[in-house]
Please model this.
Amino acid sequence: MIHTSGRRALFRGRDDTVIRFRFVEDHHGAWGVKRICRVLGIARSSFYAWRAGEQARRARERAEDLLAAEITVIHLASRGAYGVPRVHAELRRQGRAVNRKKVERIMRERGIAGVTRRRRRGLTRQARKPVFAPDLIGRDFTAPRPGVRLVGDMTFLPTEEGWLYLATCIDLATREVVGYAMADHHRAELPVAALRMAAGRGALQPGCIMHTDRGSEYTSSEFRSEISKLDMRQSMGRVGSCYDNAAAESFFAVLKEEIGTRVWPDRATARAEVFAFIETFYNRRRLRKHPEWGYLTPLETRQRHRQGHTLAA
Model:
């Protein structure tokens, strides 16, 4: 039995009405809402209004916990790389109609953040007698369709066996890595191998531009000869200007941040991880915002171009 004389003692010094409401909620089964409210000096209507609001609040908390779990899964699947824009885009792709600001708030409150890119040290070295090509890109890293403009570059990954060198060819219409090659050296044959792979799988058009920096591998006779054999046009940025080949360098920034820059135990392990990153994640699953079509993977962008070409035909 509750005595009115015990009310002041129970809540002495407390003006928090919520505590009283919760007391009613926890004990109404034993004494009834009407009696407890009368003893505590609160209106039943106020209690019922609080209860309805409390239930709605808990429902919101459960919904946010569920959304936070989905965000965490997407973030982990991206190797911890996705920030708010790509997480929000992936949720929308999965049919989740959620406000971007809400995603931002939940990620901030729960310490979920994407990676921040760092500037990298490049491999650009000029040959003793370099043969330069004109800049046919002019920092316009777009293309109307696949197979007409590629960019290429090289980087190195540290292993306990020594450096593993990686050369890539990226299609500017889709940002798909259409060609790549890895070796324990960075002689001209490495970017040549990447270029041949791009020609084999990239559906290159006659006169396709291959844009690179002025590194010795790209000014070599071997690389220029391969360009000619494939009926392509060679293009180069200026000396010492990373912005002239920013699209190619951007991929390496993504790779090193999202795969996790570290020292691999051997070249075979590093090679396998780079292969998996390019083939299973970057080309097929990583979202990038297309100026017209929104967030798509490189492979989806290629398919969109193919569908548009088919409709036009």
